[in-house]
Every structure is written in structure tokens, then in C-alpha cells.
Design brief:
- The structure is a single chain.
- By secondary structure, the protein is an alpha+beta fold.
- The chain has a domain at 1-28 and 63-68.
- Helices cover 36% and strands 11% of the residues.
- It has helices at 15-24, 54-70, and strands at 2-5, 10-13.
- A two-stranded antiparallel sheet has the order 1-2.
- A hairpin with a 4-residue loop joins β1 and β2.
- The longest helix is centred in the last third of the chain and has 17 residues, at 54-70.
- The radius of gyration is 17 Å and the shape is elongated.
Length: 74
């Protein structure tokens, strides 16, 4: 967390943490979307996609949980 203090205010920022997360998980070229999956798509366990690394996934979820717990307005 970055804390910037001025005479009558304190500003808490996590921009650097979020930027480091984006780099860590190689998401620099990802595009934001309102809904991450198309409407009417049915999910299945065997969709032919490559398997996800469990450790990396858990790390990403933990990082996002920390970010949203410390910034509830996200």
C-alpha cells in the first residue's frame, strides 16, 4: 500500500500492487470486458482447453482477494 499524506488529507493507493499483479500473471495485453463470458455459453469440465496450473491460479485468486478486501470499491 502506498500512503500519501498532505496537510488535511491522507490518500491510500494500491496502483503499484495492481500493476505488479498484472505483470506477474502476464495480463498486460488483456482487454477489459463487462462480462467475461458470452451469454448462453454452457461450461463443461472437458472443453478441450489446456489445463490451468493450480498454484498459479491460487496465487492469482489470493492476490485478487487481498486487493478487493483492502479496496471494497473495486
Amino acid at each position: 500500500m502506498e500512503v500519501h499524506q498532505k496537510k488535511n488529507e491522507i490518500f491510500i493507493c494500491q496502483f503499484k500492487y495492481a500493476q505488479n499483479m498484472i505483470k506477474k500473471f502476464a495480463m498486460e495485453k488483456c482487454k477489459p470486458v463487462a462480462t467475461p463470458i458470452g451469454h448462453g455459453i454452457q461450461l463443461s469440465k472437458d472443453d478441450g482447453a489446456s489445463k490451468v496450473d493450480k498454484t498459479s491460479y491460487k496465487s492469482m485468486v489470493g492476490s485478487l482477494m487481498f486487493l478487493t478486501n483492502t479496496r471494497p470499491d473495486i
